[in-house]
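tool_call: predict_structure(chain=1)
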Amino acid sequence: MTETVTGPARQGTDAALARYAVRLGDDALVLAQQLCGWITRAPTIEEDLALSNIALDLVGHARTLLALGGRLDGTGRTEDDFAFLRTEREFTNALLVEIPDGDFAGTVARQLAYTHHTVLLYEALAASTDPELAAFAVRAAKEVAYHRRHADDWVVRLGLGTAESARRMRAGLERVWPCTAELFEEDALVRGLTAAGAVPAPGPLRERWHEEVAAVLERAGLPLPAPKWHATGGRDGLHTEAFGPLVAELQSVHRQFPGGTW
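tool_result:
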């Protein structure tokens, strides 16, 4: 028989799970904003469509996760409240998704790291004790699997292409890889939720992630980066210099027309 947790313990778990859901929602929202910057600038029309469709999927993920956070934390905040009415220090996304794009190869490198992590995470979250989070994860894992295949194909194409495309792909990987370790950080919030069975432990996910991305890079004839430093702080609201302008652009219409509806 399953024991139902109620009272203060349940409230504490809900508050922690709310913060966790908002973290993931912020990841998806910020990355969607980044990918939208490639519309009309991608190498081909097909890539304009592909990246915009990936961004739309991520916006859908962000809406679900941020709305879930607002319900669980008891504030009743909507996804729009989270997206448009917070300051940059209140966002808790990982630094990986906010670093400037650079060239197309840099975007592909970031997609490689993010999508392999997110598919593994969502597949594991399908077993979460929280039914809403589990249901979301089942659907979202299938969508991100397509994003992962898109990233894998481009990594191999650029790695095995010309000397210049391979050089750019190596440079992109070296640029984003210091930000990948933060995806697997295990702070007090994650440890508590792992103990409650609500979220998976990051350690085993990182091992599988490393194996998967190494296999893709081997196919592409590219070395696996071994950064000498690791970026951190995004989960605590400490962001890069580029993040302020990114948030300002994201929120510009809402702040210009507060309360507007379309």
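agent: Residues 1-5 have pLDDT under 50 and may be disordered. Proceeding to next step.
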